[in-house]
Amino acid sequence: MTQPAPSRSRRLAYAAAVLFLPAWAGVFGGELGGAGGEPLIWDKALHFIAYFVLSALAAMALQDKRRVLWAVLGLIAMGAALELLQGAVGRDCSGWDEIANTFGVVAGALPVWVALLVARKSSG
Questions:
Q1: How many domains does the chain have?
Q2: CA-CA distance, 33 to 31, in Å (whole number)?
């Protein structure tokens, strides 16, 4: 007896979950690794993009508005903790980096979260 093929939404959630861990490892390593010496605006853009990707992947993998909210809060807290840890590895802790991280997290999760709300309202 064959099982029905997983839905497109389920396949997207699985792919996002699989991609989240390597993306997280890249962000974690980048935050605690050696400073690259990028110009200030590029550095903030990198923070925004990294946390945007993490948040979007988490939101697509979780596909539940409450879980997405917890993931957003967790990623913001992780960014803050990593900024504080940078002082222990010889790098500068920057509040501006955490602001860029936070904006990236919100911008990455918001479209998925809105889509979940719309889908829930249209289905019931």
A1: 1
A2: 6
